Amino acid sequence: MSAKPRLAMYWAAACGGCDIAVLNLGEALVEVGSRFDVVFWPAVMDAKYADVEAMPDASIDITLFCGGIRNDENEHLAHLLRAKSKILVAFGSCASEGCIPGLANLSTLDEILDASYANETTDNPDGVRPVPAWRENGVTLRIPTLAPLLRTLDQVVPVDYTVPGCPPETKRIEDVVELVGKALDGTAVLPPRGSVLGAGHSTVCDECARERNVKKIGAFRRVTEIATIDPTLCLLEQGIPCNGPATRDGCGALCPAAAAPCIGCYGPADGVLDYGARLMSAFASVVDADEPERIEVILDGIADPVGQFYRFSLASSLLRGGREAMDQAHRGRASAPVGSPAANHPAPRLGRTPPSAPMLDVLGPQDHVPQRAPTGPEPPAPTLEPVGGPAR
Amino acid sequence: MSATTAHAGAAPAAKDGRFEPVILAFTCNWCSYRAADLAGTARMKYPPNVRLVRLMCSGRVDPAFVMRAFADADAVILTGCWPADCHYRIQNVKALRRFILLRRVLESMGIEPQRFQRFYASAAEGQQLAAEFDRIVEEVRALGPLDWAGRHAAFVPSATPPGAGVGEARAAAEARAAAPPPAERELAEVTA
Questions:
Q1: What is the DSSP letter of A211?
Q2: B57 lies in some domain
């Protein structure tokens, strides 16, 4: 049996773009392959859930989990991989904040199924709908049952780290791989549990090379409505709704550099409790009108407010989840109170543990832990105890 | 100011079984809070459903505060100084802009506009403030509770027993399963 650290990657309600982003590592992927024992990665190799179920708890060193939780299969794998993994990473926007699949939370399950099985573009004379079990010729076929709402991974199981992005930029993935590799060598320490890996702590605006002035917006316009976009001026100042002010940096501000507004795929910047709320505040403050009627006219230029402010983060918005989401926000990665039970969890450990060999401790004394730059109390250290409960 | 000391989570005792909404009102230190204070010292009455949060300025109200409030409250009110009266020059106008944008988003996400209202009140307008609170409480009472649990339950297909399948699909599937399967739906290759 290999003594290399064991790596898993999984896709739940996701498009597969995160897997592609990892494959984009190119030559660095060979390094990943030689460094890690890839034990489960449905996108690139055959594997059965039964193989994962047969693994001992906490036997996978690090799991990169892509995708939100939309059905009972996703949820089963979330609990299963939580139990089997020492470190569970919410990888990409879907797992960390719901992403595009999370926009379906604006619709009921019946509306979603109607869109797929019973609208004018569908040829379905028998009104066939998916059923979770179907018996045919003595064989029962099963498909997963959809959940009423899409949830993010950390709304279902405790998550140790988040790697944002839709998908995460390949360069940032390299950084994460390098960090984990150094942690395994003992030359680096992993940040405290709940940290965001592979991204910055500020906003896209701070990475953006465009010139910024005092903003006064007399009209919001779509990119397609503008004949000439100034190549050096802030897009928001040109009336283009650009989500940079609320979005975490780390992507390199690629979109605004190409005259395309930021759409917010890197999620909320540090200290932002609700992504859309922060962005609304930023946009509304610079509307150049004082009278309600005139303000309304200017805001009419934002054609789809929920899509603009919550394109990637609807499933994790404070409002959509009500009290439940608020509890989550209190328990969650950004705001765990110092001194809470979670704060006293043991330091993260990486690396295989050969029998009788001491476990490699990659998190040094607390004073060596790099401080997370921004606001809020320090989050607790990652726990490597299986916390997701037994596999179902 | 008994309203400010009341526990925000508890609704006033229901009279005659009618719904007593919990409403959070953001007030500014210089105008609308003083209007509420005036209402108190002048012994004007307004419903105990309204709980006040005093901020230095209505411009301090982050949209996230309102979203957080909706986790527990049935409605949120934003009050502040009249235009041109702001202690901080134009921050009440910024609050107005944020209010208008936030209400659009809240509406798109299913929160009725009556649950998020605003009005101006100068430090002298205790009576007007009490009257506005009266009006809003009655409007929200007519709407009923915000009821997150019920809203979430609405996402579960009602026609379906738990775990049984989706919508009417199960009934259709059972009817089909009872009939002999058509040849084109043969799944002979499928193995356990």
A1: B
A2: yes
**At B34, which amino acid appears?**
R
Residue B101 and residue B158 in one domain: no
Find the closest chain A residue to B110 by CA distance. A106
**E strands in chain A:** 6-11, 37-40, 60-66, 69-71, 85-91, 133-136, 139-142, 146-151, 161-163
Mark whether B53 and B126 lie in a shared domain: yes
B109 has a pLDDT exceeding 60? yes
Residues of chain B neighbouring A313 (CB-CB closer than 8 A): none
- Per-residue pLDDT, A120: 86
With respect to residue B180, please indicate whether it lies within any of the assigned structural domains.
no
B109 with A306: Cβ contact below 8 A: yes
Residue B168: inside a domain: yes
* Residue A233 φ then ψ, to 5°: -90, 145
pLDDT over 90, % of chain B: 62
Q: Do the domain assignments include residue B182?
A: no
Is the backbone peptide bond immediately before A167 cis, with ω within 30 degrees of 0? yes
In terms of residue numbers, what domain contains B163?
A: 147-174
CB contact under 8 A, B167 and A148: no
Number of Cβ within a 10 Å radius of residue B192: 6
Q: Is there a contact between B186 and A317 if contact means CB atoms under 8 Å apart?
A: no
Residue among A290, A305, A322 minimizing CB distance to B83: A290
In a shared domain, residues B84 and B106: yes
Range A6-101+149-196+333-368: architecture per CATH: 3-Layer(aba) Sandwich (3.40)
Tokens representing residue B9 in the block: 């989570």
Same domain, B83 and B156: no
Number of Cβ pairs closer than 8 Å across A and B? 154
Query: Which chain A residues touch B111 with a CB distance below 8 Å?
Result: 319
Q: How many helices (H) and strands (E) does chain A have?
A: 14, 9
Whether residues B56 and B123 fall in one domain: yes
> For chain A, which ranges sit under pLDDT 70?
1-2, 320-392
pLDDT tens across A221-250, in order?
998 888 899 999 999 999 999 999 999 999
Total of domains in chain B? 2
pLDDT in tens, B75-107: 999 999 999 999 999 999 999 999 999 999 999
Query: Do A148 and B109 make contact, defined as CB atoms within 8 angstroms?
Result: no
Measure CB to CB from residue A274 to each of B67, B111, B163 and give the nearest one.
Answer: B67
Q: Which chain A residue has the Cα nearest residue B192?
A: A139
Indicate yes or no: CB of B105 within 8 angstroms of CB of A309. Answer: yes
Each domain of chain A, given as residue ranges in start order, spans 6-101+149-196+333-368, 112-148, 204-313
